[in-house]
Design goal:
64% of the residues lie in helices and 20% in strands. By secondary structure, it is of the alpha+beta class. Strands 1-2-3-4-5-8-7-6 form an eight-stranded antiparallel beta sheet, with helices on both faces.
Length: 269
Amino acid sequence: MLMGSASPKHTCLKLVISNKEQIFVKGTWFSSHFDLFITDGLKTWTCHASEEEVEERASQWDQPVSEYIDLAEKYLGFQQPGSVYGFDDAGTGHKRLSWTFEKEGTKLEWRWKCQPSSNSKKTTADILDFLMDANIRLSDEVVSKTESFERMKVEAEKCLTQSEKLSREKEEFESAIYAKFLGVLNSKKKKLRELRDKLSKQGTAVEEPVEEDAQSTDRTKTFDEGSDEEMSGEEVEKEDVGTSSKKDDVGTSKDVPAGRGRGRGRKRK
């Protein structure tokens, strides 16, 4: 259990150790040192890791101080699966808190010696107060989350109902639009068919006069050709007639002087 985001940070862990014994470990974590308060419900112990001790331990493990404290907080803030925890006697009422972890494939163990608390009652009360405060905060958070979830659930149901309503309205609207569209489309198709039939009839009516005109043209042509031939014949006849007339005229002119001569001769007698 981790409480608080600013420095110092506080944790409280119900730790089950290897021999089935249960203890509570409250930790206060600073940037360069930490404090541990431990109780089994009857006795209490404390561990004050000074800056010098933490720096020395960190140098032994070739770690920065901050990394060492973060790793210790990780294993004493939450019980890590795979880690072996111990809380063994260290003589004269002292205890040794230990835990194991793996680093680069090697299993390592950290140990810190804890001394009996000078005021067991106060240490136990501090741990219980912290747990009660944490429980209250967690309970309030759970209530708040539950209320928020219920509100979201109600809103979700409203949204679902509205979505279903909109879906139905959409389907009805689309059905109505499609029906109107089909009516308009069928009407347009009917008009197009009527126009097509009308154009087809007009085309048939236009083709018949064209054929008649062609026949008339042929007849006119034949008539014209016949007329030309007749005219040619008439012209030939006219020419023949003209030629004959000229011949007659010539004959008449020859005869006229002879007649006149005879007349003159009569006057002389």
